[in-house]
Amino acid sequence: MRFVVVTGMSGGGKRTALKMLEDAGYYCVDNLPVSLVERFMELISMPDSEINKVALGMDVRTDQSFQDATRILRELREKGYDFEILFMDADEQALIKRYKETRRIHPLASDGRVEEGIRKEREILENIRRTADYVIDTSNLLTRELKEELDRIFVNNEDYNSLMVTIMSFGFKNGIPADADLVFDVRFLPNPFYIDEMRTKTGKDPEVRDYVMSFQESRDFLEKLTDMLLFLIPNYVKEGKYRLVVAIGCTGGKHRSVTLANALFEEMKDQGEYGLKLYHRDINNGRT
User: Fold this and answer.
1) How far apart are CA 212 and CA 192, in angstroms?
2) How many CB atoms lie within 10 A of CB 71?
């Protein structure tokens, strides 16, 4: 039997993950009190049970003494129960945005302030997150991408990539991305915006791509950046980092940054045990 405990931050995508696992053939139970987890595992593990894939949702709504969850799960493992922990997470900015959009009240926001509820919840869930087998950050993850990740781990039984690397292009005139871990400025490269036939195009178009990459400086930058990231990523994984956002910026985020982000993505594919995403934040905005 494959038994998955699904937990995480409120608003991090736990319910969505449970629905996706249910669609994949898992028997799903949500909002079970921590004190009943062992009894549930006993019943579901009986020899005559026809259920072979289970997903159990646990969060702070179920039990204010959720700090006991880590201890109880550890004791269950010591008793021989075999299960995995999936922790659904998102950064504070994404969580606040989701709560504002849905107008929901955070379960721990007694004073009505979402930020305070998120802070309290992170403290409560700190230990169980540390012991989780899988941490999926949904801050910039599309629903389709989340399904692909869950299918890869829990349906196709492929190896889990503990670090998700997002390569992002952006325009400095629209602000540096708040979630960027590493920021690189490619405004030192010639700007295709000043060439009439390229002005309305983007770094996705062959003419712009070929123009930007025709300069030795562009190729040198790509080579050096790739080498640095391939050095850094294994060390980030070793230190337990699960999300890395590499932001490449030009003036408006349409030509140079898009070209280099695309090129870096191609260089980084299949280079190691990490997930890789490409995101163009400002490709439809203004000049570059």
Assistant:
1) 7
2) 12
pLDDT tens figures, 205-257:
999 999 999 999 999 999 999 999 999 999 998 887 878 999 999 999 999 99
Best CA proximity match to 94, nearest among 108, 78, 115: 115
Domain end residue (candidates: 154, 183, 205): 154
pLDDT above 70: residue 100: yes
pLDDT score, position 47: 83
User: Rounded to an integer, what distance in angstroms lies between the CA atom of residue 122 and that of residue 271?
Assistant: 33
* Residue in this structure with the two tokens 């493992």, named with its chain if needed: 77
CA distance 275 to 244: 10
Alpha-carbon dihedral of residues 261, 267, 273, 277, nearest 10 degrees? 20
Burial of 204 (0-12, 13-18, 19+ CB in 10 A): middle
Beta bridge partners of 247: 168, 183
Kindly state whether residues 134 and 45 are assigned to the same domain: yes
Q: Over range 50-70, report the average pLDDT.
A: 76
- Same-domain check for residues 229 and 271: yes
Of 6, 85, 68, 81, give the one whose Cα is nearest residue 41: 81
H runs (alpha helix) in the chain = 14-23, 37-44, 68-78, 92-102, 114-130, 143-154, 206-213, 216-238, 256-268
Residues in contact with 139: Cβ distance below 8 Å, sequence separation at least 6, in sequence order:
90, 91, 93, 94, 179, 243
Q: Could you list the residue range(s) of the whole structural domain that residue 226 is in?
A: 164-280
Report the mean per-residue pLDDT for the chain. Answer: 89
Question: Is residue 285 situated within a structural domain?
Answer: no
Query: Where is average pLDDT lowest: 50-64, 136-150, 153-167, 195-209?
Result: 50-64
Percent of the chain topping pLDDT 70: 94
